[in-house]
Amino acid sequence: MTLAEIRDDFEFLDDWEDKYRYVIELGKALPEMPEAAKTDANKVRGCVSQVWLATTHEDDRLHFEGDSDAMIVRGLVAILLAIYQDRSPDEILKTDAREVFNELGLKDHLTPQRSNGFVSMVERIQSDAAAAKAG
Fold it and tell me: CA 50, CA 46: separation in Å to the nearest integer?
């Protein structure tokens, strides 16, 4: 799923219950993360739910795998992957997913804990991009 498709789908949906269901569907469609990748090193701190992000760097592109034990958070991971997947470290560092989060209206409709968790995931991705850029 691309970010453009997610934006289009969000515009099409009128009420927030439908948008929540859509985010959950995005989470259900997220590829399964191998259990072996659900390590303490891949765990995202600052999230109420269990969240894992694994990053690989190849050919100046970062590839992410993510998972959560909460379906709505899996959907947020799916949105993040739509924003950042297979981009260069420079592209990732120039892209603020929080703007997309606000644009979709998620900031106003998720609990502060979920919003803070989303920010923690963005910070983790950007930190991994900065580390990859530094070599």
Answer: 10
